[in-house]
Automatic annotation (TrEMBL):
Regions of compositional bias (Pro residues) in chain numbering: 9-19
Similarity field: Belongs to the cytochrome P450 family.
Pfam families: p450 (PF00067)
GO molecular function per UniProt: heme binding; iron ion binding; monooxygenase activity; oxidoreductase activity, acting on paired donors, with incorporation or reduction of molecular oxygen
This protein's record includes keyword Signal: no
Region entry Disordered, spans: 1-22
Cofactor dependency: heme
Name listed for the protein in its UniProt record: Cytochrome P450
Length: 477
């Protein structure tokens, strides 16, 4: 094992945290103890299946990079921002998606943006990007506001009884994804989509031994199950699209993302999506668009329930903000503290906790030689908890992201990735989660119904280790 230490200066221990109320202790994120040494090859496979946060030992959170060997393959975890920049931006052409990731993601969107490469990826990116451009935000914000109000009315009926807030956020995020995509409620298809996503995350989203050692074109024991899931998923998305296409067109402009995708043409070639590509793009956007947002909202509400002073600050900010469908898009500028809470939540609990690349052309940077075939790992989880980039990294402190705070370390904060492959829906996700959180705190005081700690588990995404009961009480204005 090779560990390279970081030499960047660490802020002094007594440096004040900006905008932090005096005498208010910061809530610290509960975490399991880190292992003292790196995982062996077989322990690596077990950790990937059970909790990826156990992949790296304590020293990884202080190092520039860590080199290891996984069976026949060398892998390196990169933490230094300059190294991250080189792999994801500066020399990204020398790195490709590894076979293991292709195996995992392919069931959701074989022909979609996540797996497309070369000219095909450029065409899809050019075609999809305008559908999520700022000009679409008023349309999307209206759908977010409408769905959130419906969910708030449903949750108010619980009258303070304990409830599963993660399930509620998953339901809400799926409604928002469906309404934003199709202008209509997902209706009868909602339970089927939720059930399919649970099957994918629980059975197909983690890497097995075969995924790690076999090329993506060679069948593994898990290939049959994933192929069956893909057939089911494409059929489900196809039925939803068929139902949407039967609706009459109203007005001249796009009503939703589906209208925009269906009419989208590559600005250089004029080519649009065929039926399979359209299904894969829609399916990918629904899957990637609702589960990460649901988890972000769940973790944000969990943090606010544990930090009443921060929740009160959000409540004060949103008290008189108009978040109705007609004004929701305009309200975003009035929510800097709420956005800071979302940004800090994404730091502490990044939904996508792992990015992997395979070196396809030898590379040399810093004191590290990367040979062809090396697996390069960039973990937003490790970066966001790295002791050289964040003071008190386990502390929940939204002030880190307020205007006037010290600049966030570049390429040390990657909730949506970076470079050419940065998440195309990042701005919509930030707007969506900020608006939902603001409206929820307008409506409810959020409390936990038990005091047991909640630990994060990283499998497909960063999720809680148990179901946590919450109480929602009407907020007094």
């Amino acid at each position: 094992m090779t560990v390279q230490s970081q030499t960047s200066p660490t802020p002094p221990a007594d440096a004040p945290l900006p905008h932090t109320p005096e005498c208010t202790p910061l809530f610290r994120q509960p975490l399991a103890d880190l292992p003292e040494k790196s995982a062996s090859s077989f322990a690596f496979v077990r950790a990937v299946r059970r909790n990826g946060l156990h992949l790296w030992a304590r020293h990884a959170y202080e190092a520039d990079y860590v080199e290891e060997r996984l069976f026949h393959q060398k892998w390196v975890l990169l933490n230094k921002p300059e190294l991250v920049h080189r792999v994801l931006v500066g020399n990204n052409g020398s790195y490709a998606r590894p076979d293991s990731m292709i195996r995992v993601v392919r069931p959701l969107g074989r022909h979609g943006l996540l797996l497309a490469t070369g000219e095909r990826w450029k065409l899809q990116r050019r075609t999809i990007a305008p559908t999520l451009a700022p000009k679409m935000l008023p349309i999307l914000a209206r759908h977010v506001s409408t769905c959130t109000d419906e969910e708030i009315r449903a949750l108010a009926a619980h009258d303070g009884a304990p409830l599963d807030l993660l399930a509620a956020m998953q339901t809400l995020a799926l409604k928002i994804a469906a309404r934003s995509m199709f202008s209509v409620t997902i209706g009868d298809y909602g339970p089927a989509v939720r059930a399919a996503m649970q099957v994918f995350l629980q059975r197909h989203a983690y890497m097995s031994f075969g995924d790690l050692v076999l090329p993506h074109w060679m069948p593994s024991l898990r290939s049959i199950g994933r192929a069956g899931f893909r057939r089911h998923w494409l059929a489900l998305i196809g039925r939803i699209i068929d139902a949407r296409e039967r609706l009459p067109q109203a007005g001249d402009g796009p009503r939703d993302l589906f209208d925009a995708l269906r009419s989208a043409r590559d600005p250089e070639t004029g080519v649009g999506f065929d039926r399979v590509e359209l299904c894969d793009q829609v399916g990918t956007m629904i899957a990637a668009g609702h589960e990460p947002s649901a988890l972000t909202l769940y973790w944000a509400l969990y943090l606010l329930a544990n930090a009443p002073d921060v929740q009160d600050a959000v409540a004060a900010e949103v008290r008189d903000v108009d978040l109705t469908p007609d004004r929701a898009a305009d309200a975003l500028d009035a929510l800097p503290y709420t956005r800071a809470v979302i940004s800090e939540t994404l730091r502490l609990y990044p939904p996508a906790w792992l990015m992997t690349r395979k070196c396809i052309e030898p590379d040399q940077f810093d004191k590290l030689s990367v040979t062809r075939g090396t697996l390069v790992i960039i973990s937003p989880w490790v970066l966001h908890h790295h002791r050289d980039y964040w003071r008190d990294p386990e502390a929940f402190d939204p002030a880190r992201f307020l205007p006037g705070a010290p600049a966030v370390p570049r390429f040390a904060y990657l909730p949506f990735g970076t470079g050419p492959r940065v998440c195309v829906g990042a701005q919509f996700a930030l707007a969506e989660t900020s608006l939902v959180l603001a409206r929820f705190i307008q409506a409810f005081e959020t409390e936990l119904a038990d005091n047991a700690p909640v630990l994060p588990i990283a499998l497909g995404l960063t999720a809680p280790d148990r179901l946590v009961p919450f109480r929602l009480k009407p907020r007094r204005r």
